[in-house]
Every structure is written in C-alpha cells, then in structure tokens.
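User: Reviewer 2 asked us to show a designed sequence for the structure in our supplementary figure. I'm pasting the structure tokens here. Could you produce the per-position amino acids so we can include them in the response letter?
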C-alpha cells in the first residue's frame, strides 16, 4: 500500500528515505514551494535548484538508494511526463514540498474532473458555443468555423483569452509568443474493457491507482472503482504510459508510427506482470495518443526568461494555459485562467 517500496527494502533504503523526507520537510517549513508556483519563494538557493536535474540533486546529497531513485523518478514521470534526469530539481522538489497536508484521504468524483466540467457547463450553457473551430486570432477579432453549418464567422473582441496550449499560438496568430524553449511530453493512454477483475494474488488488493514497480508505465487506475454497485463483474482499467526519451520529437514519432497491435501487445505484456490472465479478460482496448500531453519542466526552464515572457499578455490577448507555469497540473491551469480574467476585469474597471 502506498508508493514507497517496503518489501525487501534494505537498511540503506530506509535511511535514504528518511533523509530525503527530512530534506523535503525543511523546504516545507520554509514554505518555499507553493501552488500556484508563481507565489513560491525567489530565494537564490531555491532558484539555483532549477539549474540542476532532480537525479543530480539526489546524487549530490549522497542519496543512492535504488528504491528512492525509482520512487522520485516515478513521481517525475507521473506529474511531468519525463525522466528525473530531464526534470529540474526545483520542479522535482515542488512535487513533494508544495502540499503541506497529509493526503491520506482523496476526495474526487467517479467521473473525475468531468464532474467539474459538467457543473461549469450548467452555469455557462448560454455562453458556450460548441462544434466550432477557431482558425485565426488577432488583436481585434477571432475567426471561427462552424463545422455543422460549414460557415465562417468573424467575432469582434475587446479582449481575448487564449487558453489553448501556448505552442498552438503559432498556428493561429501572425505574431505569436516565442515558445522555442517549450518542450512537450507525449503520452499514451489506453482503456481496457475487461469481462472481470483479475485474480487477486499476493500483496495488497487492487486499488483505485495501481503501480507496477520498475515498469516504464505509470500503472493503471480502475475506472469503475468508485461505483457503488455491490456486485460488479466487468470493469475498465485506464493505463498510462509516458514516452520519456530525451528527445520529445523522436518520441512523438514513435508514438505516431507504432501500430495499435504493437501497443496492445506492449500494454498486455506490462499488465501481465501482476495479472498473468489479463489478455484473456480484455474484451476491448481503446488507445489515445497525446503528442503534446504536458509541458516538460527541464532544468533551467521554470525560472527562465522565456517562460516568464510567454506568460505576459500580448496587447489585449491573454494567455492562460498550465504550460505557462512550467508544469501541467490542474491547480496551475485554474490559476492561469483566473489570472487572465482578473487582468481583464482590472482594465475594464
């Protein structure tokens, strides 16, 4: 239970985990790392952490436990989509030190953040236009194509909030912000419809979030875990695999060019480690390929001038995506959207 590998852990593993926890607690006591990240401390010793990798941070402090390195690397792959060799130590520490509460209890909904989307749509239904694609953004107007009516419309706008991933601006704007320093991690997500749950074996029971030790994947979540049915033979496993090679462009090519069957065989082989019978249980497997799933907080990027400048408005166009924070978590996306709205409201009085 939990992510920390305890079965077969050595004394060095225990000692290094304890030292790592003490280091993180020191940063917590300083309230150095916050969500949103823009409110974090700008102390020089903290900003210098952005210049080294998270793996280098551990090695520099003599933390050599393989189990600890697996654990920290897993955290970086999970939140940032890249290996801890390619993650800024500032971002890596932020993962552990920015939340000053015990997270033993998680409050969520069966449909995840979809519940929030539904509630927002209920309040804003009259102001939402669906079935439409923006194909040009300027300081005076936005051009929109209605896919149902096959009709283009020009909308005059005093202010524009650009909440798409920032790299898309170059496809929509004549003078977009520079995103040459922005790197995005590709992900594969698969939903496996199973006729029944796998057999429970040694270890802990199947949980909502299940991790396979020493796997390149992030494991899987049980999508039906929070249903209240007393008997539920069928289920859906959602499997996550970040492509963490040093070149995101090459990994995107691999993601795109690898066939569905090859990915299926790869996924089933990985899941067969804890569940040998998984192939016989799978009725259907849907695979989604996300070429630019999340921004990569590589060393030197979080507190770079490039990120800071991209987050600034261009005239009356305000950017509001989580990539402007240097890493993609829900709270940062929410902060960027609120910040853009507040800037406009301040101008409008």
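Assistant: Here is a per-position design you can include in the supplement:
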């Amino acid at each position: 239970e939990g992510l920390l590998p305890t079965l077969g852990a050595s004394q060095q593993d225990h000692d290094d985990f304890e030292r790592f926890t003490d280091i993180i607690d020191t940063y917590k006591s300083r309230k150095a790392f916050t969500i949103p990240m823009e409110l974090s401390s700008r102390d020089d010793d903290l900003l210098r952490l952005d210049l080294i990798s998270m793996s280098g941070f551990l090695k520099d402090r003599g933390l050599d436990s393989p189990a600890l390195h697996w654990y920290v690397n897993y955290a970086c792959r999970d939140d940032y989509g890249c290996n801890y060799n390619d993650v800024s130590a500032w971002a890596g520490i932020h993962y552990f030190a920015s939340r000053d509460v015990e997270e033993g209890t998680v409050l969520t909904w069966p449909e995840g953040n979809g519940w929030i989307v539904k509630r927002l749509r209920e309040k804003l239904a009259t102001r939402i236009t669906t079935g439409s694609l923006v194909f040009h953004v300027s300081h005076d107007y936005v051009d929109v194509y209605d896919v149902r009516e096959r009709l283009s419309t020009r909308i005059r706008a005093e202010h524009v909030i650009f909440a798409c991933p920032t790299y898309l601006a170059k496809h929509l704007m004549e003078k977009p912000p520079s995103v040459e320093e922005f790197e995005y991690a590709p992900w594969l997500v698969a939903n496996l419809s199973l006729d029944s749950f796998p057999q429970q074996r040694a270890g802990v029971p199947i949980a909502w979030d299940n991790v396979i030790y020493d796997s390149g994947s992030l494991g899987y979540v049980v999508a039906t875990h929070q249903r209240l049915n007393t008997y539920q033979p069928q289920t859906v496993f959602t499997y996550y695999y970040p492509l963490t090679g040093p070149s995101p462009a090459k990994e995107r090519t691999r993601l795109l060019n690898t066939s569905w069957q090859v990915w299926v065989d790869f996924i089933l082989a990985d899941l067969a480690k804890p569940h040998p019978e998984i192939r016989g249980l799978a009725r259907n497997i849907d695979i989604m390929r996300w070429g630019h799933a999340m921004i990569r907080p590589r060393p030197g990027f979080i507190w770079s001038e490039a990120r800071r400048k991209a987050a600034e408005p261009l005239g009356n166009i305000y950017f509001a995506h989580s990539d402007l924070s240097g890493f993609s978590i829900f709270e940062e996306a929410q902060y960027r959207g609120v910040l853009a709205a507040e800037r406009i409201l301040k101008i409008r009085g």
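For the response letter, you might also mention the following. Residues 114 and 120 are 10 Å apart (CA to CA). The first strand starts at residue 132 and ends at 137.
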